[in-house]
Amino acid sequence: MKLAVFATLAASASALSFVNNQKVDLGKAAQAGVVAAGLMAGVASPAFAGDVGAGEQVFNANCAACHAGGQNVIMPDKTLEKEALEQYLAGGRNEKAVITQVTNGKNAMPAFGGRLSDEDIANVATYVITTSESGWDE
Predict the structure, then answer these.
(1) Per-residue pLDDT averaged across 99-114, rounded?
(2) What is the mean pLDDT of residues 54-80?
(3) Where is the Cytochrome c domain (predicted)?
(4) Do 51 and 98 form a contact (C-beta atoms < 8 A)?
(5) In terms of C-beta distances under 8 Å and separation of at least 24 residues, what long-range contacts does 5-11 make, across chains too?
(6) For the segment 15-36, what is each residue's pLDDT rounded down to a tens digit?
(7) Is 35:107 a contact under the CB 8 Å cutoff?
(8) How many CA atoms within 13 Å lie on the side-chain side of 111?
(9) What are the residues whose beta carbons fall under 8 Å from the beta carbon of 116, sequence distance 6 or more?
(10) What does residue 23 show for φ and ψ, rounded to 5 degrees?
(11) Which pLDDT value is given to residue 64?
(12) How far apart are CA 98 and CA 124, in angstroms?
């Protein structure tokens, strides 16, 4: 994050130093710096659509029977661990792919599209991706 802030400040300062006797709108320059910092921060830490805490609650109530601790009691190779999601999840390890899988189901996994709200599914997807990154508690 410090690197992103430094890079933004350096870019803003260098952009302002090359202005040749022109009026500079400092408000727009500051906004550009904030946008750049936000983009740089996004590279280091992706923004998620859902709420991790709410997703954990929905997961525990609806998914944990088969996926407790990020495992899979029906198909043991297809866990919710980072590597397994990257290998087996159609579309790769990302929220959109988890949302699709949870909404539509696949193989032995039932569809939850008619049972859970879109918000609940987005929250579960955020929880699954976030937890797969940090590691599941067994």
Answers:
(1) 96
(2) 96
(3) 50-132
(4) no
(5) 5/37, 7/36, 7/40, 8/33, 8/36, 8/37, 8/40, 9/33, 11/36
(6) 444 444 445 454 444 444 444 4
(7) no
(8) 6
(9) 58, 62, 102, 124
(10) -70, 135
(11) 97
(12) 8
Domains within the chain, CATH numbers bracketed: 52-134 (1.10.760.10)
Residue entry with tokens 């202005």: 19
What's the pLDDT score for residue 36?
A: 43
Given a contact cutoff of 8 angstroms between Cβ atoms, the answer to whether 136 and 80 are in contact is: yes
**Quick one: pLDDT at residue 138?**
60
118 class by beta-carbon count within 10 Å (0-12 exposed, 13-18 middle, 19+ buried): exposed
Alpha helices, DSSP H only, in 49-137? 52-62, 64-67, 82-88, 95-104, 118-134
Average pLDDT over residues 43-62: 82
DSSP state, 68? Answer: G
